[in-house]
From TrEMBL:
This is Lipopolysaccharide assembly protein A domain-containing protein. It comes from Nitratireductor thuwali. Coiled coil: none annotated. Residues 86-111 are annotated as: Disordered. Residues 97-111 have a biased composition (Polar residues).
Length: 111
């Protein structure tokens, strides 16, 4: 319940800001990929400014996520190795345990 309230407190103002940004920046602006001939119609497109702003924001989030994922690869590898080691040790422990009956199982865990 608390997480739902916090989500509402964060997402509602964020949505209002995003909608206000989109409404305030709806004028068409040119975006060109040719720095030497900006008037080249083949490499120029016109869209509302908020489209470019949101695209830049999304691209930044994706690049940041990928960079974080690569930087944390070392820790994921260590966790995977340790998980395999724990599984191996559990299997070795289970293989070394003698087959016990119900009466010996109670005495084994009491000490």
């Amino acid at each position: 319940m608390l997480s739902r309230i916090v989500t509402i407190i964060v997402l509602v103002p964020l949505a209002v800001i995003i909608i206000a940004l989109a409404v305030a920046n709806r004028a068409l602006v040119p975006f060109t990929l040719d720095p030497f001939n900006p008037g080249n119609p083949a490499l120029t497109t016109q869209m509302p400014l908020f489209v470019f702003l949101f695209a830049a924001l999304a691209l930044g989030m994706i690049i940041g996520s990928v960079a974080t994922w690569f930087r944390q690869g070392r820790y994921r590898r260590i966790a995977r190795q340790r998980s395999h080691e724990v599984d191996r040790l559990r299997k070795a422990e289970n293989a070394n345990e003698p087959r016990s009956t119900a009466g010996t199982a109670l005495t084994r865990h009491s000490g």
